[in-house]
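MOLECULE: protein
FOLLOWS: sequence and fold
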Amino acid sequence: MHLNATSASIFALTASLGLLMCLPPRQSLAPVGGGTTRSSRDTIALDLHALVVRTDLQGKIRQVNDHFLALTGYQREEIIGRPVSVLHHPKDVAPHAEASHALATGDSWTGENRIVGRDGIILWTRATALSDTDADGRPCGTLLVHSDISRTKESLAAHNATASLNRLTEPVFMVSTTNYELTFANDAAAALFNWNREDMSVIRVGSLPLECDRPAVSRQIESLLAHEIGSFAFEALYKGVPYRADVQLIEHTDIRPRLYVVLRDQVAVKAAGRAKDELVATVSHELRTPLTSIKGALGLIRSGVAGELTDKIRDLLDIAYRNADRLVLIVNDILDLEKLAAGQMDYDMERQDLIQTLKEAIAANEAFATRFGVTIRLIAEDDSAFVCYDADRIHQVMTNLISNACKFSPTGTDIEVRVDSDEEKLHVSVTDKGIGIPADALETIFDRFTQVGKASRSRQGGTGLGLSIVKGIVESHGGTVDLSSIEGQGTTVTITLHRAPAEKPAAMLSANRGLH
């Protein structure tokens, strides 16, 4: 699942908020005891609470205090002698130019800028720059005194981030990855779930009465924490209202990992989807009858019943017939998808031999395979394998898979239809040695109207509906569909169906009936 621009903005805000709410206190140096003069106490106080940097006339660092080292992460020997510009943030060109101008005219300068510490540490400071002199009062460089205001900046940023999140109408909340306790909720989330903002730490998100596929969500979270995926989304119901939940993991060195969740009300989205589906279904129904008539009429004319045809007319009729046939296939595919989505697909389920249906599907597609110069091979350990299924629909599934394999296979290669089995299931795989599918397209390959690359369109028109129909039909049989592919090497699609229970012998059935 990919996130939209709104999701990206929300997650960026929540990431900064999570960081700002959870940063540890800044390190400070231990205080020094008494027995000092007022002047020395002032110097000690300055060293404890400010970052002090002295440069020479060439702008190279000649002295820093311990507090500077503690906050920037530098060792004294690695910073002494380096140009002071190594501490400058690239976005602070203006304040540094102002400071240089003030010093050149004999003035001091005070303002805000950033210090870039070791390993990219950024410190916001209130800085004062003034000319430094030696014991004889001669100019010897610059004295820079920085007061760390990062916490103030962070507090302001946290306030602004919280205010921004609370202005959102969509519920947003953060969850600890260790115990799944709530760590933050915006106003919309608190109102939706009736959360007490003061007791968030005792709220466990797992106890929310959300109706969703919890095992699937748990697996996705595990993949998220293992960095196998960057984000995911799932559908859920809350008090009868459908929501889409977008989830992302945000990590930072200074905070514990957090799950960031955005909920989106899907009532309007689903209503629009239903309206669109109804329109498509209505149009498809209205198109099928005239298209079938047009195709039939073209077929009769091609056969010569209306008189002799010239070669040029026959070529034109062939083109028209093929396009009419393609339109009929598209309409039928759309209607099948609408039936699947509405749960109205009819199935004639019978216990029958799956191997026999596979042989029939292969035979029916041999002419199609010949057009592309490929061969279909069936590999099965057993002569028969019984499953409870609708033969016409499984034939449709195999035709889709075999025709796809033909379109994507190089001339002269084999398409392998293989049947493997265990005690409970049969696994039917269709493997080609074609161009394969890019890794970034695998996630959406079963979506409607999905076509990868141009091979299918250049060699044989496709609707992009085949795999979606395959998935719907197989899942309606209680089975599963898996796809694996390596770009440039080939693709394997595997459908898995449950074996049918063995039939009892007729004599045993008669004996059992006699016991009642």
